[in-house]
Q: What sequence folds into this?
């Protein structure tokens, strides 16, 4: 028998401890990260306990009630789904889906939007949810495409394009160096200006929010700048998601930095650094707009030039009114 409890602040220590020991968790699921924007979302995360009252799974989520009550994998996170421990097996995951569907239907939800975690963020195989989604007639409502570099693969691994290596050498010849910094303000104006000029947009996070998150997670949130004579012309913020995968959260350059190929230098530096540190994947992030329908082919081709290849970020929808339980 599985019991479901809605998350409360008093559960934060137990929640974080489970994420740390899970087989597919990242630091984004820690409450210190999830709750920094709690004012924007109505949190409805769930904890699952077995008959011995042992915590066996988590489900980060929020609810939306805009005429129709819907349950979402937390919309403030890039990916989501069930957070599981190494002991969870296929039958238990099917039971988790059954109990969640019953819980959500009883609570008046009409749909469940399940944002699946890409496999490169798994610490060990953890795709039981994929089977359970199929069993519950879930349909893909969004598919975003990211590209990632396999850092430890040597056989038949994609090669870095020669133009990227030449770009790196050009930046080095022009006197640029990559340095890690705790001062986000060295990079932030570069990003803000580039997003404004190129996309008429702004960063997802404010500078104050990112500073807060960096203070909470100094080992996981790292900032690098490319500079010459003390003046930054490019930079990046990377997330060390877990022991396996590094995610490129933000990366931008000034117009001068782009011309002098500072991003080629930066990306190859980061790839080599985290390869040497034992990480398995360097994830460049998605290259889509319009809910996945538009693929920025120029942007993704640039990332692929560093030896990165495709990883899907999928979101499923389960219509709860039609869902049935007890399919074991």
A:
């Amino acid at each position: 028998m599985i019991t479901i409890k809605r998350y409360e602040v008093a559960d934060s220590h137990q929640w974080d401890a489970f994420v740390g020991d899970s087989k597919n968790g990242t630091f984004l699921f820690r409450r210190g990260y999830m709750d920094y924007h709690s004012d924007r979302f109505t949190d409805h995360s769930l904890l699952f306990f077995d008959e011995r009252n042992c915590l066996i799974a988590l489900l980060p989520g929020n609810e939306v009630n805009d005429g129709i009550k819907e349950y979402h994998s937390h919309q403030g996170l890039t990916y989501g789904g069930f957070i599981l421990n190494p002991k969870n097996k296929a039958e238990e995951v099917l039971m988790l889906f059954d109990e969640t569907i019953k819980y959500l239907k009883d609570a008046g939800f009409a749909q469940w939007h399940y944002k699946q975690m890409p496999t490169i963020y798994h610490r060990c195989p953890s795709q039981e949810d994929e089977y359970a989604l199929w069993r519950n007639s879930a349909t893909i409502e969004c598919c975003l495409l990211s590209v990632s570099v396999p850092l430890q693969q040597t056989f038949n691994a994609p090669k870095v394009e020669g133009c990227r290596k030449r770009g790196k050498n050009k930046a080095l010849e022009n006197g640029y160096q990559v340095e890690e910094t705790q001062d986000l303000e060295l990079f932030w104006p570069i990003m803000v200006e580039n997003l404004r000029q190129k996309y008429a947009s702004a960063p997802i996070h404010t500078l104050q929010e990112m500073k807060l998150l960096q203070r909470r997670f100094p080992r996981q949130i790292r900032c690098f700048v490319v500079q010459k004579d003390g003046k930054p012309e490019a930079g990046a913020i990377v997330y060390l998601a877990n022991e396996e995968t590094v995610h490129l959260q933000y990366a931008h350059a000034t117009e001068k930095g782009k011309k002098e190929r500072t991003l080629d230098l930066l990306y190859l530096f980061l790839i080599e650094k985290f390869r040497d540190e034992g990480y398995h994947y360097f994830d460049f992030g998605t290259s889509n707009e319009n809910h996945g329908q538009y693929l920025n082919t120029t942007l993704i081709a640039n990332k692929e030039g560093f030896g990165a290849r495709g990883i899907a970020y999928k979101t499923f929808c389960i219509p709860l009114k039609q869902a049935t339980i007890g399919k074991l």
